[in-house]
């Protein structure tokens, strides 16, 4: 199993930006597809973005396309989520996830999860 630790969450005004980081340890980072999911209070967890092992392929939820960018630095064993033009509806706990076999948009396909980081966007 790979261990994942998210950081970078916080409180930001609408229209602002945040960059989340997901530091991986315990296994070879390049063996994993990486993804970000989020869960707002009272709502189900939803897919945000995913990236291939080498970083050449990315997929985004429609709700964040054009505003969020997923990336990874394989030399630093870290994945990132750059979030721009934030909206109050982006408020959620953001989780990073890793899978050796898929870059699915379905959370159940990932078997490695971080503890989450809170993002709050005020209006």
What would a concise description of this structure say?
This protein is an all-beta fold and 123 residues long. It has strands at 3-7, 10-13, 18-25, 33-39, 46-51, 58-60, 68-73, 78-83, 92-99, 112-113, 117-122.
How many helices? The count is 0
Low-confidence stretches: none
Order of helices and strands: EEEEEEEEEEE
Q: How would you characterize the largest beta sheet?
A: 7 strands, mixed
Q: Which word captures the global form?
A: globular
Query: How large is the share of residues in beta strands?
Result: over 45%
Overview of the structural elements:
The protein has strands at 3-7, 10-13, 18-25, 33-39, 46-51, 58-60, 68-73, 78-83, 92-99, 112-113, 117-122. With 123 residues, it is mostly beta strands. Strands 2, 4, 5, 6, 9, 10 and 11 form a seven-stranded mixed β-sheet that branches. The chain has a four-stranded antiparallel β-sheet with strand order 1-3-8-7, with no helix packed on it. The relative contact order is 0.31. The mean pLDDT is 97.
Topology:
Layout: E1 3-7, E2 10-13, E3 18-25, E4 33-39, E5 46-51, E6 58-60, E7 68-73, E8 78-83, E9 92-99, E10 112-113, E11 117-122
Parallel strand pairs: 2-11
Antiparallel strand pairs: 1-3, 3-8, 4-5, 4-9, 5-6, 7-8, 9-10, 9-11
